[in-house]
Amino acid sequence: VQLQASGGGLVQAGGSLRLSCIVSARTFRSYVMGWFRQAPGKEREFVAAISQRGGAISYADSVKGRFTISRDNAKNTAYLQMNSLKPEDTAVYYCNALTTSWIDYWGQGTLVTVSS
């Protein structure tokens, strides 16, 4: 299983970015998908997660109301729409796939930099 994250970049505070994570697995629709981030000098932290059919979604308190996680099972892709970005959102963002066997797969990360 391979995960390919993209969509990061440099954006001004208040701006928006949309991250994508393409998963090379025929069983994508059985995975819980999540996004995590790691800022310089800090531990990796949870951002958002979405269940297999999208019926259950959770967010970290720090991004609620600004970020939206979604998925398209026909395209094997998960998304993270990030609005009203803040400098403290600057981090490398990683997508994560959790299988029904409780195995984690991680993408390579995409860098998001928010300037003030």
Essential attributes:
116 residues, mainly beta, 7-stranded mixed sheet, 4-stranded antiparallel sheet, globular
What this model shows, in words?
With 116 residues, the chain is an all-beta fold. The protein is 0% helix and 52% strand. Strands 2, 4, 5, 6, 9, 10 and 11 form a 7-stranded mixed beta sheet that branches. A 4-stranded antiparallel beta sheet has the order 1-3-8-7, with no helix packed on it. A hairpin with a 6-residue loop joins strand 5 (45-50) and strand 6. The radius of gyration is 13 Å and the shape is globular. The protein starts with a strand and ends with a strand. The mean pLDDT is 97.
Structural class: mainly beta
| Number of DSSP-assigned strands | 11
- Series of H and E elements: EEEEEEEEEEE
For the termini, the CA-CA separation is 37 Å
Shape: globular
Estimate the mean pLDDT confidence.
97
Total DSSP helices: 0
Q: Radius of gyration in whole Å, from Cα?
A: 13 Å
How would a crystallographer describe the biggest sheet?
Answer: 7 strands, mixed
Residue windows where pLDDT falls under 50 for at least 5 positions:
none
Beta percentage is over 45%
In percent, how helical is the residue content?
Answer: under 10%
